[in-house]
Amino acid sequence: MKIRTGTLAKLKSEGKRFAALTSYDALTAQIFDEAGIEVLLVGDSAGNVVLGHTTTVPVTLEEMIPFGRAVVSGVKSALVVVDLPFGSYEISDEQALQSSIKVMKETGADAVKLEGPRYSQVKALTGAGIPVMGHLGFTPQSVNQLSGFKVQGRGSAGEQLAQECLALQEAGVFAIVLEMVPAVLAASITETLTVPTIGIGAGSDCDGQILVWTDMAGLGEKAPSFVKKFAELRTILSSAASQYRHEVATGAFPEQERDFS
Fold first, then answer.
1. In the chain, which residue ranges form alpha helices assigned H by DSSP?
2. Rounded-to-10 torsion of CA 160, 57, 212, 7
3. Phi, psi torsion values for 56, nearest 5 degrees
């Protein structure tokens, strides 16, 4: 069954939680889709994971397109959402609409995601029939303005964040990512909103959870403190590569009886 934005709303109404992961290629998208992951985010975290940047800021819209197209090609059921990268929507509603149309037409994705309280842009996109996922709390594209990777919404700032969530809901988003937000605040926001929340470092009471897949699978060198590693792929892959190199160096691979040349 194809997961749609309405599916997530139904899951929330039924008190059922859902899982989301990032993906940047057809192979992982196929694996995660087969595992039943409901939402795949083609995140601008590709800038860190794939392109080697230290932040997501340098990622361009043109770079996001092939990532999105690849993920869509590997999916049968999951809802595929593509990040609008920094610089592709902030200038105006028109810029946001042009960028989103490009993403939707050239990737085949189901929705786009943008960061921050961009109410006008959200209204412009949803008015044109483009589903939008919001993203509040710590917003990686604003890492320089936020002076690093810091929890957002503590103390009196929590009320403002809660109001921003309500305003984004009113603007028309179908879900909101809450990143690095105090768990108590995220729980309160989740209870208040009618649209689903998707937490990342925001406690256990959000309607869904999302992780960068390389963090989830233990492939990166390090991961945020809130991440649980469900595998140790870096160790496994490193061991396999070392064994391969050893067998090539010693002549153990390829075995003569398997030489079809």
1. 5-13, 26-34, 46-49, 61-73, 93-107, 119-127, 157-171, 183-192, 213-216, 233-250
2. 60
3. -85, -10
Q: What is the pLDDT of residues 207-231, one digit of tens each?
A: 999 999 999 999 998 888 999 999 9
> Three-state SS for 170?
helix
pTM of the model: 0.95
**Do the Cβ atoms of 22 and 39 come closer than 8 Å?**
no
The 10 Å Cβ neighbour count of residue 245 is 11
The distance in angstroms from the start CA to the end CA of the chain is 45
Q: Per residue in 167-213, pLDDT tens?
A: 999 999 999 999 999 999 999 999 999 999 999 999 999 999 999 99
Q: What angle do CA 253, 258, 261 make, to 5 degrees?
A: 100
Please name the residues in contact with 99: beta carbons below 8 A apart, sequence gap of 6 or more: 61, 84, 88, 89, 112
Q: Which residues contact 23 (CB under 8 A, 6 or more apart)?
A: 29, 32, 40, 41, 42, 71, 74, 213
Task: Return the CATH architecture of domain 5-216.
Answer: Alpha-Beta Barrel (3.20)
Q: Is 115 marked active-site?
A: no
Contact (Cβ atoms closer than 8 angstroms) between residue 137 and residue 152 = yes
Single out the residue of 48, 55, 45, 119 nearest to residue 89, CA to CA: 119
Choosing from 90, 179, 232, 257, which is the catalytic residue? 179
Beta carbons of 175 and 197 less than 8 angstroms apart: yes
Q: How far apart are CA 29 and CA 25, in angstroms?
A: 6
User: What tens digit of pLDDT does each residue of 124-168 get?
Assistant: 999 999 999 999 999 999 988 876 677 888 999 999 999 999 999
Q: Residue 111 forms beta bridges with which residues? A: 81
